[in-house]
Amino acid sequence: MKKLVYLVFLTAWLFSGCAKKAGTTSAITSSHKSGKEGPRRGEILFLGHNSKHHDSGKYAPWLAITLFKSGLNLTYTTNLKDLNPENLSKYDALVIYANYDTLATDQEKALQGFVEGGKGLIPLHCATGCFKNSPWYLNTIGGQFKSHGNGAFTAAIVNKKHPVTQGLTEFSTTDETYVHQNLNKDKTVLMERVEGSTREPYTWVRHQGKGRVFYTAYGHDDSTWTKPGFQKLVSNGVLWAVGDKVQKQIAQFNAPQVDIYASSNIAISDYTKRHLVPKMQEALTPEQSLKLTQVPVDFEVQLFAAEPDITNPIAMSWDERGRLWIVESVDYPNTFLETDGAANDRIKICEDTNNDGKADKFTVFADKLNIPTSMVFANGG
């Protein structure tokens, strides 16, 4: 089965639409596979489920936005069969936010090898109620869900020196008030929910073999998932869990920061709302754009064409000869009546004639167009 690669347009750069397995080289590439040496983005697998109770399908994209700014790619799955050695080897850490009762023996073995071999495990909220048949899993995450009420509270930070709590402030939310059982004493508690004389561990970390485990009981629904403090907590936890080596690689990767909204102050759910654009995003180089492009972990993207050979590409399609056809919109977003009175847009063919993977021949197929938005091949092209 072929894998689909979604390419991101950032400024006026185009990248090859022919997906290639990682491992080849070129002047400018984007390949972030786990285990790769040198600067790269981290790779996180998020295990969710097909249920609106603990809506992982809704919250995983929210978390992906936050993690991406920290240099981490997130891939979402609801398939327990993805817990196998071959697939897990592509990732630096696994997030679990789901309700599954049992863990198959081969999946437990794969997960154990993954964590104890040095990768991260991030069980969130309901993950302490998962896999009741696996003593190894329950011991590894550090505790098991017992019961809960519901209410407004603020968990207290009890360890302010740990990397996970750096830059974190306590936040109030309405959430399920988890009570745990079978707590593993071999853990470091970072936050507690205080209720009367009870101090319930609510966020903790621990080590399992060579791997790191981060857990928080926060996260039942929108009330918590929309809190910037919760997103910061989980982002810190994931970044800690991937380990020192991957953290260093992410820092060396030096991905550009292009957020023009100061979104650390915007609830993650508010991205669907309209906001006043404070400024235009500054143009990026091809190298910078590649750092903001996510593809499947075992594929890479290579540069195919860039300015000045192309201008303002807004649509593209590949023909049967391997040529890239693009719509260049010089006029966008204005009609010709609002500019110089001429139609300046065009369709251009970008062709690689020497098979080096980069376009070296550029032919204008149609010009004097105004705001063309798409194209389709018909009648033999």
TrEMBL record:
This is WW domain-containing protein. InterPro entries: Class_I_gatase-like, DUF7133, ThuA-like, WW_dom. Transmembrane segments: none annotated. Pfam families: DUF7133, ThuA. It comes from Adhaeribacter pallidiroseus. Residues 1-21 form the signal peptide. Keywords: Signal. Residues 204-228 form the WW domain. PANTHER family: GALACTOSE-BINDING DOMAIN-LIKE SUPERFAMILY PROTEIN (PTHR40469:SF2), SECRETED GLYCOSYL HYDROLASE (PTHR40469).
